[in-house]
Amino acid sequence: MMEVKMPVSPAPENKEATSKEAETLATFSGRGLTSKQAIQVDIKAAPSGSGITFHVLSTKTNSYVEIKATADNVVNTLRNVVLGKDGTRLCIVEHFLAAATLWGVEDLSVTVAGLEMPLGDGSAALWTDLFEKAGIERNTPQSTVDLKEPIILTMGDRTLMALPDSKFSVHYMMDWNHPKIGKRWQSWDVTQNPSEITMARTFGMLKDHQMLGLENDVISLTADGFTMPLHWDDEPVRHKLLDLVGDLALCGINPLKIKAKFISIKGGHEIDVEMAKRLAAVLPALAN
Fold it and tell me: Which of 65, 97, 190, 223 is the most exposed place for a label (fewest CB within 10 A)?
């Protein structure tokens, strides 16, 4: 169930800012696709400049643990991005972070009673739809942060580059030994509609999804095709762009503000998160 709470009217006089910062924007209640357990997500506005912070219910103490959405708090990148602190973990944060980034929502307090962020159909549409229904206006940030020099990362046959440019853009080269994928190249920049990547759904091998009980919920690869019709024939590579945007959001600011061309060759969450760490390390100097 997806419940949307419209923003409340601000309180009078000097209580206006406090009221707006504390208002609940939207609530999601449902079942996690991977954990198979109930999840409730409450999204509230947060003070300006605070970024995105998750408050995750600990199964050990039954209290909430505060986890900032930063690369330093990433504890696993095997199948998705997992944030963790003091033994409490939150899985599948990248689609929510991508949606918030592309919608221009930068300061949020997200309370999660559950082990994961809801997966929806495997895209970021669950969250962009939620933002839209809550009356949150989309606001694409201006690219104002100059990247002074290239950052180039390599992990085995994977490469991710951040090159100085006039605006933010992401580019991905996919190379899968599959008859319906093969070599694919796709790009997205801030002049394009976010839906060109937010609606791109995750995918994986059918045998892996069967093991996780996801074969009826998300796109699976068979030996010669897909288990569901695609939105675009290059939907898998578009989803890689979505993941890249969400992972880069772990750098500490909305990555759309960075004047850089991010080029990923066969990249994934691990190298993306490392790039977010490198960006976080140089951002203080870039802001001056």
Answer: 223
